[in-house]
């Protein structure tokens, strides 16, 4: 498992809140910070892929677990 610096639990939140809260957390973080995000929105994998393509964060991984998704992102 990749080391992470911060964890953000967004369980129960639906689009666009997971991305908005992730953007806010990354804006406050130093470059290189790894953020672990936990979410339950079934549309969030697509949203996180699109977010990473915008260039402010690298999507390290998406792990699907029973009833939730776990994302690791690195601030660029």
Describe the structure in your own words.
This protein is α+β, with helices and mostly antiparallel strands and 76 residues long. The protein has one domain: TusA-like domain (Translation Initiation Factor IF3, 2-Layer Sandwich). 29% of the residues lie in helices and 37% in strands. The radius of gyration is 11 Å and the shape is globular. The model has no long low-confidence stretch (mean pLDDT 95).
The parts where pLDDT drops under 50 for at least 5 residues are none
Broad structural category: alpha+beta
Listing every helix as H and every strand as E from the N terminus to the C terminus, the arrangement reads EHEHEE
The averaged pLDDT comes out at 95
Q: Major beta sheet, specifics?
A: 4 strands, mixed
Which percent range fits the helix content? 25-40%
CATH superfamily: TusA-like domain
